[in-house]
Amino acid sequence: MIFQKVKTITVVSVLALAALTGCDDQKKGGAPANAMVPQVSVVEIQPDTRAQTTILQGRTAPFLVAEVRPQVSGILQKRLFKEGEEVKEGQPLYQIDPAVYKAAVESAKAEVERAKSLVMQTRNSANRYAQLVKTEAVSKQMNEDAQAAYKQAQASLLAAQAQLKNAEINFGYTTITSPITGKIGRSLVTPGALLSGYQANNMAVVQTLDPIYVDVNESSRDLLKLKKEIAEGRIKVNEGAIPVSLTLEDGSVYPLEGKLELSEVSVDEGTGTITLRAVFPNPNQTLLPGMYVRTKLPQGLRENAIFVPQRAVLRESNGSPYVYVVQDGKIAIKKIKTIKTEGTDWLLESGLEPGDKVVIEGLQRIRPGVPVNIVPTMAEQAAQQQKK
Question: What is the C-alpha R_g of the chain?
Fold first, then answer.
C-alpha cells in the first residue's frame, strides 16, 4: 500500500513538472510549436462587363377597363351573359323593358309622316302663289306668306326626323351591350331593378386581359443616377424596345417576355417615384389584375466594373462596408463604397483594384496583420474530390 502511494505521487509530480516546463517554454518562444496558420479562400478581383438590370416591384392592371352603365332609365328585364365569361364588343349584356321607348319611336314616326304631309301641302301652295304673283293675281304679301309656310313645314319635318332618330337611339339603349372585348365579372344588379340613365353605380365591369399591363415604380433618385452614368459613358444603352421579364408571387418566372411601353412624365410627390408601364402578352390569362409581381428591367452595359461577392463584405459598427484582402501573405483591411447588388455580388464605386485578393471563406479566423495560407474554396475542393 505504501509503495502504491509513492508511485502515484511520483507520476503526478512528473506531470506537473512537464506542464510548468511547457508554460515556461511558451513564454520564452511565443506561440506553441503546433500552432497552425489560418487557411482562407480568396477571389481575385478582375474588371467585368455586365448587363445592368434593376428589379422593381409592381402590380398588374387590365389593358382595357369598361364599366357597364345604362344610358336610359327603366326596369331591368333580364341578364344576357354568364358571369366570368369572355364577351365580345357589342354583345348584348342586359335588357331593359323597351315598351315605353318603342311607343316613343312609333309616336315619332307618326310625327314625321304628319310633317311630310304638311311639307307637301305648303309646297304646292308656295308653287301656286309663285305663279299667281307674276300675273298680279295675288299680292306679294300672300306669296311671301306661302313661301314662309313652306320653309316652316320643311323645318318641322327636319325636327320630326331628328326626334325619330333620338327615339330610335333610346330604344336601342334598352339593350345594353359590351363596350369592349374582354372578361366580364359578376353582375351587380338583378332583374327587376330600377335603373337610371348614366347612373353612378355600374352594373358590371369588363376587362381586357390579353395583353395586360404591369405598372412599377422607380425612385426618381435612381433614375437621375442612371441618366448621369449614361451621360458619362459608364453605361451603354441599346436602342429599340426595352424587354422586361417578370417573376410571379410564388417565385416562378413568367415564360413570356414583355416590353416597356411608357414612363410617367411626372414624379409622385408623396412617394418620390416615377411610374413605369410594361405590357405583357397573356394568352392563357395567367396574369390577373391586381397581382403582385417583380419585374427585371435592363438598363444597359456597364464596362470595366468592379464586383465583389456579397459574402465577402463585412460592416463596421457604423455600417461602413469593408473587406479583408491578402497582401504579401498577410491580412489587410480595405474599405469599400458600394453602389447596388447585382445577383450575389456588390457593384463597387471604389475601394478595390484589379488583382486584389479578397477573402471569401475563413473570415472567422483572421484579423489584420495575421499571416494566412490561401487554399481552394470548399466548392472547389468538393469538385476536386469528385474527380478523384
Answer: 44
The matching CATH number, chosen from 3.40.50.1980, 2.40.160.20, 3.20.20.370, 2.40.30.170, for 53-63+208-303 is: 2.40.30.170
Q: What are phi and psi of 235, to 5 degrees?
A: -125, 130
In the CATH hierarchy, which fold is given to the domain comprising 98-173?
Helix Hairpins (1.10.287)
The answer to whether the Cα torsion of 141, 143, 148, 149 is positive or negative is: positive
Give the architecture (CATH level 2) of 70-96+174-201.
Beta Barrel (2.40)
Percent of the chain with pLDDT over 90: 57
Q: Is 325 helix (H, G, I), strand (E, B) or coil?
A: strand
- Residue 222 pairs with which residues in a beta bridge? none
SS3 label, residue 91: coil
Domain boundaries, the chain: 39-51+305-387, 53-63+208-303, 70-96+174-201, 98-173
Judge contact between 226 and 109, C-beta under 8 A: no
pLDDT digits (tens, 9 = 90+) for 22-72: 444 444 444 443 458 899 999 999 998 887 778 889 999 999 999 999 999
What nine digits make up the cell of 43?
Answer: 477571389
Matching CATH number, 39-51+305-387, of 2.40.420.20, 2.40.160.100, 3.40.50.150, 2.40.240.20: 2.40.420.20
Q: What does the alpha-carbon distance between residue 259 and residue 283 come to, in Å, rounded to a whole number?
A: 16
**Got the DSSP string for 136-190?**
TSS-HHHHHHHHHHHHHHHHHHHHHHHHHHHHHHHHHHTEEE-SSSEEE---S--
| Strand-strand pairing, 74-79 and 92-96 | antiparallel
Rounded distance between C-alpha atoms, residue 300 and residue 233, angstroms: 11
Backbone dihedral angles phi then psi of residue 347, each to the nearest 5 degrees: -85, 125
Label each residue of 61-110 as H, E or C: EEEEEEEECCCCCEEEEEECCCCCCEECCCCEEEEECCHHHHHHHHHHHH
Q: Which tens digit of pLDDT belongs to each residue from 169-188? A: 999 999 999 999 999 999 99
> Quick check: helix, strand or coil at residue 229?
helix
Mean pLDDT is lowest, of 13-17, 149-153, 180-184, 299-303, for 13-17
Query: Does the structure show a pLDDT above 90 at 230?
Result: no
